[in-house]
Structures are given as C-alpha cells and as structure tokens.
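Example record for the data management plan.
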Amino acid sequence: MLAGGQSRRMGTDKAFIEVGGRWLISSALAALAEASQRLIVGGTDPRLESAAAASDAQHVADRWPGEGPLGAMATALGRARHPVTVILPCDLPAIGAEDVAVLVQAVIEAPPSTAVAAAVFTDQRRHYLPLAIDTQAAALAEHLFQSGRRAVASLLDEATVVDVPAPASAVADIDSPEDLSSGH
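Corresponding structural encoding:
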C-alpha cells in the first residue's frame, strides 16, 4: 500500500483522514486482509507504524520519499515475497477485498508474455491505481525510476496490461476536501 504522497489538494495527509469512523489507511488495509504479506510504503509519520501494527502489516520507508509513486512501487516490489503484488493507494475508502482478488486473479490468468503482467480497473478511463502486477517487475520499476521516470504509467507501458471492468466503489478516491463532502 502506498501512503507517502504529499496530499497537496487535500491539504493534510490523506492516510489519516477519517471516513466512516476509521482512517483511510485502515480502510485500504482491510481490503488487503486476505494478502499473505502487507506492506505500507510511506514516510516517517509514526502513525504509519501504528496503522501497520494494528493490521498485522509492516511499515517500510519509501526509498525515494517525495519522488512520486513509481519509486514507492519499486520499494514495495523489492520487498514483496509473493508472485503477485497489489499496489493500493491509501485513498480508496470503499475498495473491498473482493476487488483486490479480481485484480490478482486477472494477473494470474494473463496470457503468457515476455512482459510482466499487470491488471488495472477500467471504466471510461484506465485507473493506474490500484493495480496488481507480477512481482518480478521490481527490477524494471527501479530501472525506470533511476532513468528519471516517476509515473505509474511508465511501468504499465512496459507491461502486458489486463483491463478489468471497474466497480465504482473500487476507484472512488478522495483527493480534496470537496470529495469528502460529496459522499465518497
């Protein structure tokens, strides 16, 4: 899970905003309840350690804090111990374990290819996060990051991407205070 963004539009760390009586990061961790390994990649806020401990997860410092999501993904993929890794942002309050399972299954069932497989949700557009991806993408993610790329799209450009129909709840993110008041 990624919890290291600067939350510029929100004005405060989104991971610790309460929605439905719990922190956004706690909602995201609940969606990963079936995962064999749960990592929170983020900064040094001590609440990240607390959230990780409360959810049987591990907090891992982003190797490149403040440098965008690709570096955080490279950090997560480099620490992952399983064939498929789910990259989940902390700002999806209604995503569920069943949504995560659909993405993982899509990667497992992806046609054989020389490229790594990834699965993303798609509705009117392709949502780059959340995603499931072959963990073997760790070296590629780090290489792309070291070459100056920072966007998730740059990694997906190198992957075989499976588009999965997006349930609205799985992609409804919270980016600004207006999103909180609009019923997300």
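Summary line stored alongside the record: The beta strands are 2-3, 18-19, 22-23, 39-42, 58-61, 84-87, 117-122, 126-134, 160-165.
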